[in-house]
Design goal:
The structure is a homodimer of 96-residue chains. Chain A is α+β, with helices and mostly antiparallel strands and 96 residues long. Chain A has five helices and three strands, in the order H-H-E-H-H-E-E-H. The first copy, chain A, has a single domain (2-83), classed as Winged helix-like DNA-binding domain superfamily/Winged helix DNA-binding domain (Arc Repressor Mutant, subunit A), CATH 1.10.10.10. Chain A has helices at 2-8, 11-21, 27-32, 38-50, 69-83; strands spanning 25-26, 54-59, 62-67. In chain A, helix 1 (2-8) runs antiparallel to helix 4 (38-50). The radius of gyration of chain A is 15 Å and the shape is globular. The interface between A and B is medium-sized, with 24 and 24 residues. The first copy, chain A, binds a DNA duplex (30 and 30 nucleotides) through residues 10, 12, 26-28, 31, 36-40, 42-46, 56, 58, 60-63.
Amino acid sequence: MNLIYEALAHPTRRQIIALLRRGDLPAGEIATLFDIAKPTLSGHLRVLREAGLVIGERHGTSIVYSLQLSLLEESMAALLDLFKIDSARSPEPDPN
Amino acid sequence: MNLIYEALAHPTRRQIIALLRRGDLPAGEIATLFDIAKPTLSGHLRVLREAGLVIGERHGTSIVYSLQLSLLEESMAALLDLFKIDSARSPEPDPN
DNA sequence: TCCTTTATTAGGCAACAACCGAATAATAGC
DNA sequence: GCTATTATTCGGTTGTTGCCTAATAAAGGA
Protein backbone atom coordinates (compact mmCIF):
# COMPACT_ATOMS: atom_id res chain seq x y z
CA MET A 1 0.00 0.00 0.00
CA ASN A 2 2.81 2.36 0.87
CA LEU A 3 4.31 1.92 -2.59
CA ILE A 4 1.09 3.17 -4.14
CA TYR A 5 1.01 6.36 -2.07
CA GLU A 6 4.68 7.00 -2.83
CA ALA A 7 4.10 6.42 -6.52
CA LEU A 8 1.27 8.95 -6.56
CA ALA A 9 3.36 11.57 -4.75
CA HIS A 10 5.10 12.78 -7.93
CA PRO A 11 3.24 14.98 -10.44
CA THR A 12 4.86 13.36 -13.46
CA ARG A 13 3.72 9.93 -12.35
CA ARG A 14 0.15 11.14 -11.88
CA GLN A 15 0.26 12.65 -15.35
CA ILE A 16 1.43 9.31 -16.72
CA ILE A 17 -1.58 7.68 -15.09
CA ALA A 18 -3.89 10.29 -16.55
CA LEU A 19 -2.33 9.69 -19.95
CA LEU A 20 -2.69 5.93 -19.85
CA ARG A 21 -6.35 6.25 -18.93
CA ARG A 22 -6.92 7.23 -22.57
CA GLY A 23 -5.16 4.18 -23.89
CA ASP A 24 -1.98 2.11 -23.80
CA LEU A 25 1.26 3.73 -24.90
CA PRO A 26 4.85 2.65 -25.54
CA ALA A 27 7.46 4.12 -23.19
CA GLY A 28 9.08 6.20 -25.89
CA GLU A 29 5.85 7.85 -26.86
CA ILE A 30 5.18 8.74 -23.26
CA ALA A 31 8.67 10.20 -23.06
CA THR A 32 8.06 12.58 -25.97
CA LEU A 33 5.17 14.13 -24.06
CA PHE A 34 7.32 15.16 -21.11
CA ASP A 35 10.26 17.51 -20.97
CA ILE A 36 12.55 15.10 -19.18
CA ALA A 37 15.26 12.68 -20.28
CA LYS A 38 14.28 9.15 -21.18
CA PRO A 39 16.14 7.51 -18.30
CA THR A 40 14.27 9.72 -15.87
CA LEU A 41 10.95 8.71 -17.34
CA SER A 42 12.00 5.09 -17.34
CA GLY A 43 12.56 5.48 -13.62
CA HIS A 44 9.08 6.87 -13.09
CA LEU A 45 7.63 3.95 -15.01
CA ARG A 46 9.57 1.57 -12.81
CA VAL A 47 8.09 3.14 -9.68
CA LEU A 48 4.59 2.81 -11.10
CA ARG A 49 5.32 -0.78 -12.12
CA GLU A 50 6.64 -1.73 -8.68
CA ALA A 51 3.55 -0.23 -7.08
CA GLY A 52 1.49 -2.42 -9.42
CA LEU A 53 -0.29 0.56 -10.93
CA VAL A 54 0.86 -0.17 -14.49
CA ILE A 55 2.23 -3.10 -16.43
CA GLY A 56 4.61 -3.08 -19.38
CA GLU A 57 4.40 -5.63 -22.17
CA ARG A 58 7.02 -5.97 -24.80
CA HIS A 59 5.83 -5.72 -28.42
CA GLY A 60 8.82 -6.04 -30.65
CA THR A 61 11.38 -3.43 -29.65
CA SER A 62 8.94 -1.29 -27.75
CA ILE A 63 7.34 -1.82 -24.36
CA VAL A 64 3.71 -0.86 -24.19
CA TYR A 65 2.43 0.39 -20.85
CA SER A 66 -1.12 0.08 -19.63
CA LEU A 67 -2.99 0.80 -16.44
CA GLN A 68 -3.60 -1.98 -13.96
CA LEU A 69 -7.17 -1.03 -13.19
CA SER A 70 -7.68 -3.53 -10.39
CA LEU A 71 -4.85 -1.92 -8.40
CA LEU A 72 -6.25 1.52 -9.00
CA GLU A 73 -9.55 0.40 -7.53
CA GLU A 74 -7.78 -1.12 -4.57
CA SER A 75 -5.99 2.13 -3.86
CA MET A 76 -9.26 3.97 -4.11
CA ALA A 77 -10.71 1.61 -1.53
CA ALA A 78 -7.71 2.20 0.72
CA LEU A 79 -8.17 5.93 0.53
CA LEU A 80 -11.87 5.63 1.24
CA ASP A 81 -10.90 3.59 4.25
CA LEU A 82 -8.33 6.13 5.39
CA PHE A 83 -10.85 8.92 5.25
CA LYS A 84 -13.74 6.73 6.30
CA ILE A 85 -16.13 8.39 3.88
CA ASP A 86 -17.37 4.97 2.91
CA SER A 87 -17.84 2.52 5.79
CA ALA A 88 -18.28 -1.26 6.31
CA ARG A 89 -14.58 -1.96 6.62
CA SER A 90 -12.00 -3.24 9.10
CA PRO A 91 -12.65 -1.87 12.59
CA GLU A 92 -8.93 -1.26 13.34
CA PRO A 93 -7.47 0.22 10.18
CA ASP A 94 -3.75 0.06 9.48
CA PRO A 95 -2.89 2.73 6.91
CA ASN A 96 0.41 1.09 5.84
CA MET B 1 -3.08 19.34 -4.74
CA ASN B 2 0.51 18.15 -4.93
CA LEU B 3 1.00 18.95 -1.26
CA ILE B 4 -1.80 16.58 -0.36
CA TYR B 5 -0.33 13.66 -2.27
CA GLU B 6 3.09 14.34 -0.73
CA ALA B 7 1.58 14.53 2.73
CA LEU B 8 -0.10 11.16 2.26
CA ALA B 9 3.12 9.53 1.08
CA HIS B 10 4.45 8.88 4.59
CA PRO B 11 2.98 6.06 6.73
CA THR B 12 3.23 8.03 9.96
CA ARG B 13 1.21 10.88 8.50
CA ARG B 14 -1.48 8.51 7.28
CA GLN B 15 -1.62 7.01 10.76
CA ILE B 16 -2.04 10.48 12.22
CA ILE B 17 -5.00 11.02 9.91
CA ALA B 18 -6.50 7.69 10.93
CA LEU B 19 -6.03 8.69 14.57
CA LEU B 20 -7.65 12.08 14.23
CA ARG B 21 -10.66 10.53 12.54
CA ARG B 22 -11.62 9.27 16.00
CA GLY B 23 -11.38 12.70 17.55
CA ASP B 24 -9.20 15.75 18.06
CA LEU B 25 -5.93 15.35 19.93
CA PRO B 26 -3.17 17.61 21.28
CA ALA B 27 0.22 17.22 19.60
CA GLY B 28 1.84 15.74 22.68
CA GLU B 29 -0.74 13.01 22.99
CA ILE B 30 -0.25 12.08 19.35
CA ALA B 31 3.49 11.95 19.99
CA THR B 32 3.13 9.42 22.80
CA LEU B 33 1.44 7.02 20.37
CA PHE B 34 4.41 6.94 18.02
CA ASP B 35 7.94 5.76 18.65
CA ILE B 36 9.58 8.92 17.32
CA ALA B 37 10.94 12.09 18.89
CA LYS B 38 8.54 14.95 19.39
CA PRO B 39 10.23 17.34 16.95
CA THR B 40 9.95 14.69 14.26
CA LEU B 41 6.25 14.38 14.88
CA SER B 42 5.93 18.13 14.94
CA GLY B 43 7.43 18.11 11.46
CA HIS B 44 4.86 15.60 10.24
CA LEU B 45 2.10 17.76 11.67
CA ARG B 46 3.53 20.74 9.84
CA VAL B 47 3.40 18.86 6.54
CA LEU B 48 -0.22 17.90 7.16
CA ARG B 49 -1.02 21.48 8.16
CA GLU B 50 0.57 22.96 5.04
CA ALA B 51 -1.37 20.52 2.88
CA GLY B 52 -4.51 21.77 4.64
CA LEU B 53 -5.41 18.29 5.84
CA VAL B 54 -5.38 19.25 9.53
CA ILE B 55 -5.57 22.39 11.59
CA GLY B 56 -4.06 23.12 14.99
CA GLU B 57 -5.74 25.30 17.55
CA ARG B 58 -4.03 26.44 20.68
CA HIS B 59 -5.80 25.64 23.95
CA GLY B 60 -3.68 26.90 26.80
CA THR B 61 -0.22 25.40 26.48
CA SER B 62 -1.27 22.63 24.16
CA ILE B 63 -2.22 22.70 20.49
CA VAL B 64 -5.16 20.53 19.57
CA TYR B 65 -5.16 19.04 16.11
CA SER B 66 -8.24 18.10 14.13
CA LEU B 67 -8.99 16.90 10.63
CA GLN B 68 -9.99 19.38 7.97
CA LEU B 69 -12.74 17.26 6.52
CA SER B 70 -13.49 19.49 3.55
CA LEU B 71 -9.95 19.07 2.30
CA LEU B 72 -10.12 15.35 2.74
CA GLU B 73 -13.21 15.24 0.57
CA GLU B 74 -11.51 17.40 -2.02
CA SER B 75 -8.57 15.03 -2.20
CA MET B 76 -10.97 12.13 -2.57
CA ALA B 77 -12.57 13.90 -5.51
CA ALA B 78 -9.17 14.51 -7.05
CA LEU B 79 -8.28 10.87 -6.79
CA LEU B 80 -11.61 9.84 -8.27
CA ASP B 81 -10.83 12.19 -11.10
CA LEU B 82 -7.34 10.80 -11.57
CA PHE B 83 -8.64 7.28 -11.85
CA LYS B 84 -11.85 8.29 -13.61
CA ILE B 85 -13.88 5.75 -11.68
CA ASP B 86 -16.46 8.42 -11.13
CA SER B 87 -17.19 10.62 -14.16
CA ALA B 88 -18.84 13.99 -14.88
CA ARG B 89 -15.67 16.00 -14.34
CA SER B 90 -13.29 18.28 -16.23
CA PRO B 91 -12.63 16.93 -19.75
CA GLU B 92 -8.91 17.77 -19.66
CA PRO B 93 -7.72 16.78 -16.19
CA ASP B 94 -4.56 18.24 -14.72
CA PRO B 95 -3.30 16.00 -11.93
CA ASN B 96 -1.10 18.65 -10.27
C1' DT C 1 8.41 37.41 37.89
C1' DC C 2 9.93 32.72 37.68
C1' DC C 3 9.01 27.98 36.94
C1' DT C 4 6.60 24.29 34.58
C1' DT C 5 4.37 22.39 30.72
C1' DT C 6 3.64 21.89 25.90
C1' DA C 7 5.19 22.55 21.18
C1' DT C 8 7.89 24.38 17.76
C1' DT C 9 12.14 25.93 15.45
C1' DA C 10 17.21 25.50 14.56
C1' DG C 11 21.11 22.96 13.20
C1' DG C 12 23.26 18.95 11.56
C1' DC C 13 23.61 14.44 9.51
C1' DA C 14 22.46 10.12 6.93
C1' DA C 15 19.50 8.15 3.60
C1' DC C 16 16.78 8.73 -0.32
C1' DA C 17 14.76 10.66 -4.72
C1' DA C 18 15.10 12.93 -9.13
C1' DC C 19 17.72 13.98 -12.70
C1' DC C 20 21.17 13.53 -16.56
C1' DG C 21 24.63 11.48 -20.13
C1' DA C 22 26.80 7.25 -21.35
C1' DA C 23 26.69 2.44 -21.71
C1' DT C 24 24.12 -1.84 -22.17
C1' DA C 25 20.22 -5.06 -23.41
C1' DA C 26 16.58 -6.85 -26.40
C1' DT C 27 14.38 -7.23 -30.66
C1' DA C 28 13.66 -6.75 -35.73
C1' DG C 29 15.16 -6.47 -40.37
C1' DC C 30 18.62 -6.67 -43.88
C1' DG D 1 26.19 -11.38 -38.19
C1' DC D 2 25.50 -6.32 -38.44
C1' DT D 3 22.81 -2.27 -37.88
C1' DA D 4 18.94 0.41 -36.34
C1' DT D 5 15.40 1.10 -32.96
C1' DT D 6 13.52 1.18 -28.44
C1' DA D 7 14.15 0.92 -23.48
C1' DT D 8 16.57 0.07 -19.52
C1' DT D 9 20.46 0.04 -16.31
C1' DC D 10 24.75 2.31 -14.56
C1' DG D 11 27.34 5.94 -12.33
C1' DG D 12 27.41 10.33 -10.51
C1' DT D 13 25.49 14.93 -8.94
C1' DT D 14 22.20 17.67 -6.59
C1' DG D 15 18.45 18.59 -3.76
C1' DT D 16 15.09 16.89 -0.41
C1' DT D 17 13.23 14.17 3.49
C1' DG D 18 13.37 12.14 7.94
C1' DC D 19 15.41 11.85 12.03
C1' DC D 20 17.79 13.36 16.21
C1' DT D 21 19.39 16.64 20.21
C1' DA D 22 19.53 21.27 21.85
C1' DA D 23 17.54 25.66 22.01
C1' DT D 24 13.56 28.70 21.84
C1' DA D 25 8.66 30.23 22.23
C1' DA D 26 4.10 30.59 24.28
C1' DA D 27 0.92 30.09 27.93
C1' DG D 28 -0.54 29.19 32.79
C1' DG D 29 0.03 29.18 37.72
C1' DA D 30 2.55 29.96 42.18
